[in-house]
Amino acid sequence: MLEWTLYAGIARELIPLASARCVIVDSTRRGKAMPDALSKTIPIWCAVINWLLFGDGEVYLPEEVVGCSESAQIREKIDGWVKDAKVSDLDLMNEN
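-> structure tokens emitted (96 positions)
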């Protein structure tokens, strides 16, 4: 079973960098067509952040890398991640 969780601690560190620069660290094993960070993690965070900021956020996952079943499982979890982010102390409007 695949399992993903929203870890707001990472976002608290990365979001302030987004206005100037961003560093992506990925530990995906060799041999994959696309790193997990690019195929799933970043699209998930973009969807969650768009929901929080704009009230709408479709998750776009590359079909050639993410299978239909896994994509459906991720899409089902977006609402829960948005709720988790809302109750966290994640500050998306921080200008620092």
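The chain has one domain: 8-87.
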